Amino acid sequence: MATPPPPRASRSRRFAIVASLVVAAGFAWILRAGGLPVVPPREAFAGVAWWAVVVHGLLYLGALYLRSHRWTWLLAPIEPVPLRRVVAVSFIGYGALVLMPFRSGEAVRPLLIRRRGLSGWAVAGTVAAERIIDGLFLSALLFAGLWLAHPQEPLPDRIGELDVPAATVPRAAWLALGIFAAAFIAIFVFWFRRAWARRTTERVVGLVSPRLAARLADTVERIASGLGFLPRLRYTIPFLIATAGYFLLNTLAMQILARGVGLPIDFARAAVVVGVLHIGVLLPNAPGYFGTFQISLYAALALYFAPEDVMGRGSAMVFITYCLQIGLAILLGAVALLVEGASISQALGDTEDEPVLPGPSGAC
User: Fold this and answer.
1) Nearest to 364 by CA among 183, 143, 138
2) What are the residues whose beta carbons fall under 8 Å from the beta carbon of 243, sequence distance 6 or more?
3) In the prediction, which pLDDT does 364 show?
4) Percentage of residues of the chain with pLDDT beyond 90
């Protein structure tokens, strides 16, 4: 008896996993060629104040809780969801986002919440809105840090041994700001001027492909349905306060860790480090953000510190930050999985028994 072909979703997932591992191998080669340590030598940890590592981890946990709690204010206008469930599903989603290739874990939160009767597209819209607003906050934080804490002059023309000038970092910040601003304007217009936005999209994109124009308009219109919180200040204000708290806690955690490894850094410079890190990992990449995470942190530190400090004490900071943040995301996801009683296949977005929701990939 012939073996039936594997489901299309399974084949696609296997291909994505293989492709992401190839990307990870490429980043490993880039890090090695650039002399950027993934695992620093033992002497790099000699001056580490381990209390700072503990404080960094606790502050990061607080930041993750704020990040998950704020989702309740986006879901409330659609259908209120108990806080405990929102936090648990969020933690599962963050763990899946770390483990799954090319940010495909973005679909997990809408998938798990949708099982309780919420509209899948509306929930996906809240996730998209969350990511876009995060991007705007992140860009503002990064620009404020760059303005308050000027990088060293002249900027180095290399990051480690990579032939990439540190001046690339501010340019990337401007690009990210433009992308997030354009995305926010698009979904904002589709929410408040839906009919006009749809007609405009169909006319402009329809010059290339009427079918593509109709699909694009349908998708953006459905995602925009998740913006029901915007006109309601009782939801919008708490969400924005929690978002600011999330990034400020992240920045404080980064500042304390940097000082703990021996890098004298103020809050503004820590804001730049956090901003560059988040921009670096927002694109689809390898599981665990491997490669982009490390390169982003090294690039941010190169703005303010001499190469020997970046490659020495800085390498310890990069390693500790990576292990803590990735490790905590996976650990919290595993605990939440047990609490929710969800299966591994559900947590990883296995949709052989249910249609998959296209999850918006974005910042942070």
Assistant:
1) 138
2) 70, 133, 134, 137
3) 47
4) 31
